[in-house]
Amino acid sequence: MKTLTVISLSAITVLGLALPLSSSVAQQGSLRQQLVGTWTVVSDEIVTPSGTKQGPSGPNPKGILMMDAGGRYATMGGKSDRPKLKSGNRSEVTAQEFGTAAMDFAANYGTWTVNEAEKTVTMHREGALNPNNEGTDVKVSVSLAGDELKGVGPGGRTFVYRRAK
Known about the structure:
Layout: H1 2-27, H2 31-35, E1 37-47, E2 53-54, E3 62-67, E4 72-78, H3 95-103, E5 105-115, E6 120-128, E7 137-145, E8 148-152, E9 158-163
Antiparallel strand pairs: 1-2, 1-3, 1-9, 3-4, 4-5, 5-6, 6-7, 7-8, 8-9
């Protein structure tokens, strides 16, 4: 009986020491492995032809990106200073008021794939707040530095996410 207890404690000790190592190895894995997780928006900007930076979601955007290991994603975000609706009950809000609020918000979900050699992510939008985006693909060049994910998409749109803790 004592031998079984010693073996069990030894196994737990070895497992406990291996877990921190495996999480650091995962962070150094493939680009695809490193992207899996939940990310929060830090910035979202487009550089105009004149060189000025313009944030489509305003100066302090809010949002989230979730990418799972199975290749599915969901993202949503928008301006942090959107005005409140006249009612919390959506059925009591006019279509115009709701439409104005939706203009300052974006959301979509679908599947994602990685081209490790090019360091790009392609997101296939299955559903989106803007129905014209459904069924379309977006290819983004990405780079990772610690817990920061930077991406450059179509039209020079640049975004930065930080890994959620």
